[in-house]
Amino acid sequence: MTPTLILAIAGGVLIAAGVYLLLERSLMRILAGVMLAGNGVNLLFLVSAGPAGDAAIVGADPETIADPLPQAMVLTAIVITLATSAFLLAMSYRSFQLEGHDEVADDVEDAIIRRRAEADLSSEAYVDTSSDSDSESGGRDDSESGGRIERETGSRAEDEDIR
């Protein structure tokens, strides 16, 4: 295998490991994922630049000079990764100060969707009724359609348990 292919595979592995860590709940693992993915992208930028060439010195043969654009893009990507890492590190530290851990909390809506999926409640279990008489029946307001959404099966107490 050529060195370029090995570096391309290494960049792909770094990006894959970074994406895996980005999907974790700990902010420190998310930070490590951002760092790995950033380094993988930087490596792929340099690999895509082609073979190494000479420095861009006045009087050098233009055919042997390396393309400076990928190097400038990598330098910019390093600065962006540094800023993102500093932000995530500060956010992780503040989360640890306030809560004693750096876990990302579940969103309330995510928990509702997960519980409805476990109970196999699909969107077809809801009926859109646009009349004003449904406001007394306990339906939930749907701001997008301007109407009320009411469940066909189950009770309102089940929805309150889900929340």
From TrEMBL:
Pfam families: Oxidored_q2 (PF00420)
Region: Disordered, residue numbers: 122-163
Keywords linked to the UniProt accession: Cell membrane, Membrane, Transmembrane, Transmembrane helix
Transmembrane residue ranges: 6-23, 30-52, 72-91
GO terms for cellular component: plasma membrane
Topology term for the membrane: Multi-pass membrane protein
UniProt cross-references to InterPro entries, sorted A to Z: CPA3_antiporter_subunitC (IPR050601), NUOK/Mnh_C1-like (IPR039428)
Cell compartments where the protein resides: Cell membrane
Protein family (similarity comment): Belongs to the CPA3 antiporters (TC 2.A.63) subunit C family.
PANTHER family referenced in this protein's UniProt entry, alphabetically: ANTIPORTER SUBUNIT MNHC2-RELATED (PTHR34583:SF2)
Stated name of the protein: Multisubunit sodium/proton antiporter, MrpC subunit
Lineage, top ranks: Bacteria, Bacillati, Actinomycetota, Actinomycetes, Micrococcales
